[in-house]
Amino acid sequence: QVQLVESGGGSVQPGGSLRLSCVVSGNIFSSSTLAWYRQGPEKQRELVAGITSDNRITYRDSIKGRFTISRDNAKNMVFLQMNNLKPEDTAVYYCGMGQYWGQGTQVTVSS
Length: 111
Known about the structure:
By secondary structure, the chain is mainly β. It contains no helices and eleven strands. It is 0% helix and 50% strand.
């Protein structure tokens, strides 16, 4: 059974940083594309960043230069380093792998 568990969310001031982690159970991690999504208040879920099995990476325009996605296949983990956070980054962040999703972790950016 595939499970995804996120961690690392929290509350920070504008300009702060957080590092989200997602650990994935199951044996299909290394061959799968992983992605981070987010859903802000009264907004639809949106793709933040994705990384393929061969480390091709995509980012949404609004976070380019501030967020970095990476993966560790030995540990079945994917990460999202978030720097220079802005209030508009406030959302629940989800880790996704195909049809599978984590439960989400809250990120709040506020002064």
